[in-house]
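Report of the visiting student (M.T.), summer placement. My assignment was to run the structure pipeline on a short list of targets and document each run. The first record concerns Xanthine phosphoribosyltransferase.
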Amino acid sequence: MELLKQKIIQEGIVLDGGVLKVDSFLNHQVDPELMMEIGRTFARLFRDSGVTRIMTIESSGIAPAVLTALELGVPMVFARKRKSLTLQEDLYTEKVYSFTKREESEVTVSKKFLAPAERVLIIDDFLANGEAALGMARIIRQAGAEVAGIGIVIEKSFQAGRGKLLEQGYRVESLARIASLEGGKAAFV
Ligand code: G4P
Ligand code: NA
Ligand code: NA
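After the run finished, the structure tokens were exported:
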């Protein structure tokens, strides 16, 4: 997506450790027009996939996920993150380990908002090691539902996530694929 790449080039800040800061339009301040265009693009890519629901994880996945849901005319649910949780019967729960943050969290979705016959499109802001997307996919399978695909706003292609998701047979569509952040500059695939 050309508009997104321009935004990354103009406003992205490369931090140590291969981290791209995009606080001005995605992770803190949110650019509504850009999100609308992102929603339209995901909707176009997955229009024929029989999507009945969008799923993301709080918090930064919510903006692109809700605009994709609006375009496809389906509901959106976001998985909640908690440090530790006593088991609750009305929740689907999976553990997700973050390599970036070096911490494990539990992600949960209420059984009320995910039914067995659904086809769920996973949307997230970043794909790094793929653990968040894999956690969501496990929740969807726990419910007896299917993963219709995975839509990512910014993929860090130099990390392992994409490969792990493809290995499991999921369709992955990333709107910007970053090959390298070396020398403080984003280079695209
Ligand atoms: P993974 O799911 O692909 O394995 O990613 P990982 O655990 O490493 O990422 C942990 C958090 O850091 C996620 O946000 C993810 O979106 C974010 N992240 C990873 N790499 C980058 C990066 O280069 N730039 C930015 N801006 N974020 C990155 P989170 O903890 O879920 O936070 P939230 O922003 O969604 O609330
Ligand atoms: Na994030
Ligand atoms: Na995220």
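The domain at 2-188 is CATH 3.40.50.2020 (Rossmann fold). The helical segments are 2-11, 32-46, 62-72, 131-142, 161-167. I thank the supervising group for their guidance throughout the placement.
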